[in-house]
Amino acid sequence: MAKKPKKQQQTGGTPATVALAAAGAAYTVHAYEHDPAHPSYGEEAAEAMGVSPERVFKTLVADVDGALTVAVVPVAGQLDLKALAAAVGGKRAAMADPALAERTTGYVRGGISPLGQRKRLPTVLDASASGHATICVSAGRRGLEVELAPDDLARLTEAVLAPIGRA
User: Fold this and answer.
1) Cα–Cα distance, 129 to 109 (Å, whole number)
2) How confident is the model at residue 8 (pLDDT cuts 50, 70, 90)?
3) Whether 106 contacts 15, CB under 8 Å
4) Which one of 17, 22, 127, 164 has the fewest beta carbons within 10 angstroms of its own beta carbon?
5) CA distance 3 to 163
6) Using an 8 Å Cβ cutoff, are 27 and 146 in contact?
7) How far apart are CA 66 and CA 22, in angstroms?
8) What secondary structure does DSSP assign to the chain, as a single string?
9) Is the alpha carbon torsion for 141, 28, 116, 137 positive or negative?
10) Cβ neighbours, 10 Å, residue 145
11) Cα–Cα dist 109/107, whole Å
12) How far apart are CA 1 and CA 132, in angstroms?
């Protein structure tokens, strides 16, 4: 008897899509051809999908007082490190070493997803996400995005909502 295909095979099979399927969350996967020469992973995703950059969120890993923390902010802006530190009760924040971020999350830079990380890290989602019915975040590899409700993302990552992005 043939095995029934798993949901992860149908959705790209990244840890992020597997986590979404396991949680029963509603989501849509968007694949596009990644251009290694593009200067911004997030802007490339927004352009390729024809989605406003305010609805496409990048996943950044920062070091807040010695603890890695995930920040999810719109690709149209930047991360406010002071606001991130304050959101998790810290004093100082700096961008994490990229190699450490990759090892800890299990994803490569430009494909780090807030979902399905190897080690679950404290997560802060920019408050602007709640102004959209759905947002897009990396599905776990370059050229693959997942669209879902911001409430579902916050629930699945146990994220704190805070104004951590700036234009």
Assistant:
1) 22
2) very low
3) yes
4) 22
5) 46
6) yes
7) 32
8) -PPPPPHHHHTT--HHHHHHHHHT--EEEEE----TT-S-HHHHHHHHHT--TTTBEEEEEEEETTEEEEEEEETTSEE-HHHHHHHTT-S-EEEPPHHHHHHHHSS-TT---SSS-SS---EEEEGGGGGSS-EEEEEEETTEEEEE-HHHHHHHHTPEEE--EE-
9) positive
10) 28
11) 7
12) 45
Can you read off the two tokens belonging to residue 148?
Answer: 């879902």
Q: How far apart are CA 146 and CA 20, in angstroms?
A: 9
Nearest to 141 by CA among 115, 114, 109, 117: 109
| Residue whose C-alpha is closest to residue 20's, from 129, 151, 116 | 116
* pLDDT tens digits for range 74-92: 999 999 999 999 999 999 9
Query: Residue holding tokens 């990644």?
Result: 34
d(CA 151, CA 135): 10
State the CB neighbour count (10 A cutoff) for residue 63: 19
Q: What's the whole-model pTM score?
A: 0.90
